[in-house]
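Obj: model holo form, ligand = magnesium ion.
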Amino acid sequence: MPETIESLLAEGRTFPPPKDFKADALVVDAEIYDEADTDTEGFWAQAAAALDWFEEWHTVCEWDLPFAKWFVGGKLNASYNCLDRHVAAGHGDQVAYHWEGEPGDTRTITYSQLLDEVSRLANALKALGVEKGDRVNIYLGMVPELPMALLACARIGAPHSVVFGGFSADSLRDRINDAQAKVLITGDGAWRRGAVVPLKDTADVAVAECPSIEKVLVLRRTEQDVPWTDGRDVWWHDLVPEQSTECPPEPMDAEDLLYLLYTSGTTAKPKGIMHTTGGYLTQVSWTHSHVFDLHSDNDVYWCAADVGWVTGHSYIVYGPLANRTTSVLYEGTPDFPDKDRLWQIVEKYKVTILYTAPTAIRTFMKWGPEWPEKRDLSSLRLLGSVGEPINPEAWVWYWQHIGGGRCPVVDTWWQTETGAIMITPLPGATTLKPGSATFPLPGIGADVVDDAGNSVGIPGGGYLVLTRPWPSMLRGIWGDPERYKETYWSRFDGKYFAGDGAKRDADGYFWLLGRVDDVMLVSGHNISTAEVESALVSHPAVAEAAVVGKTDATTGQAIAAFVILRSGNEPSDALVDELRDHVGDTIGPIAKPKSILFTEDLPKTRSGKIMRRLLKDVSEDHALGDTTTLADPSVVEGIKSRYLAQATEQD
Ligand code: ATP
Ligand code: MG
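Output (holo structure tokens):
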């Protein structure tokens, strides 16, 4: 008999690795943590040895706080590690990507085809004047040419800077100018929910103010007319197919820049995060195989993020390809043509590993379990989550309705800055608690500290810090070493400050509490937004919630909540009271929201993260702060007018 949500969520309920899963898992015992602790450099050196190096490194790590170098003296090429070596080993016919276009067209691309395409594109970039060290900007939808573009840059040693295809002309312009890119790779358009996103039109507006751009390479996908500048713009189909498939991979120093990626801008102005080659590829490939328990010959892996985010860089492109994975790549939205599109794709390709975000899971909860129930999801054996704290209710829903109660759920905490996963379970070895990212991976040092930087011990809550360098760590902020020191290394002496709050329970499990900027101070108590949101979402009527602390004359801050209901529930005053009491019962009376506004949508970044600072502006009736990274600016305007109307009504 299927278990009820209540019993799954019961206090203290834990989920040890399922027997069937464990029988075949890569890591089944916890000794690996001790081994990595005893000899951390030896542990990472072993991980690096799984890659192909043109020249061995002489030193594993040089640590001149806060600047690290990994695998010093080593030479390698990321595209060689992702492609050539698999083809040379006889795996050229293995599928690298099953690509599913939004309109329903598909492509199957093998490792040898991918190698040929990447080599052609690399030669085309050279023909456009790109040399080792030049930056190339990439602004495309989720087409196979997007991973190809990253790999072609890596092949010739030109760092890439990908800008998510949903960003505006201003955002693209600022990122190109910051990187001083020489070439932009874009397309005529991208498909999104049945409509064309006009990439080239937007790119042209941006490039008009980007003096460093010499050439624009344009991929045809949506086939509408596009503006054209002769001499600058070049069609992909005119230049790339005629190129040779011979393009020797450039031997890169382990510390050569592989790419720049700008953070998503949830809290502040985006920063150009620098990732280099050897350490990055080492940690990304190690985590990809061990966290997702990858069996390269059998698994069909799907990371449903966009390549434009770090999740896509590390876990759609570099990690999976370095590990010779067969992946699914999907162009469009989860609700096109209907709300079961993802489940249809899982069924079609017999996906075994699915990696997505809490914002998506809560949207599936809102739509209801009837959508996944229509499809055969029995091929799935492991589920992953990334991007925000996953509240226990969403975790259990995912486990039950998508995983069929058989698949471990790995909640993976990491950041653009960390490059790879840092805190997460090893699914064959770790007993899970819904909502907890569990423990730092082997080789990773993490702690929770107080204001003075002292460890708060176990149990305890405070600021999350990383205590040792790690191979895929950011090497700096592009063009701004001072901001790098100031942002990450100045708050706590000798420790990396991640900007997130966390607590450890009595068993030492880590629970991520969201950004410290989001913590509320109510009547002298620190209350995390994640805890109150989680309590709200644990009510059966609620799909998603965001809370903020608004200035209050009596309590310092008062909690304002914004709530999305699950389908089939109606807003009412009675429900407001019920939800307030529910939070009071779950956390304590002090955490009861002072106001609750029902809404259809929440302001989110284009990567799906709730932007609480804008809701705070709304609740305090300030002018809205920077909204350029919002997915849909009209959402927050709508919330603002309804919030103010409700506030007036209540006065
Ligand atoms: P910016 O730094 O520009 O404000 P951002 O932090 O949203 O943007 P990312 O690097 O994409 O940009 O996101 C990393 C952040 O996402 C983490 O610092 C954390 O707040 C949150 N996060 C990611 N994964 C998890 C997770 N599994 N649990 C809790 N929080 C997570
Ligand atoms: Mg951040």
